[in-house]
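Inverse folding, one chain.
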């Protein structure tokens, strides 16, 4: 089990290296949901984060889902 803390409406800056099979570079995402179903494509636990892309002018963009490792959301100082 892990401790996952994501606030709906939070804006996440996600590097391409922190996404599973990215087709583009880093992205900024305003979170609208999290699917609490773990996927394990490699050695880490990954979850789906749903949201709306935020473009460079801070305008709302396309809705999307990204697969990210749970370590991005672990509280500071938590054991991994």
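Residues assigned per position:
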């Amino acid at each position: 089990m892990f401790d996952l803390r994501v606030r709906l409406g939070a804006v996440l800056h996600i590097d391409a290296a922190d996404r599973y099979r990215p087709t583009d570079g880093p992205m900024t995402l305003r979170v609208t949901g999290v699917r609490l179903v773990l996927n394990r494509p490699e050695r880490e636990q990954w979850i789906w984060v749903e949201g709306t892309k935020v473009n460079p002018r801070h305008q709302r963009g396309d809705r999307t889902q990204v697969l990210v490792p749970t370590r991005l959301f672990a509280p500071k100082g938590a054991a991994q």
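DSSP finds no helices and four strands in the chain. The mean pLDDT is 81.
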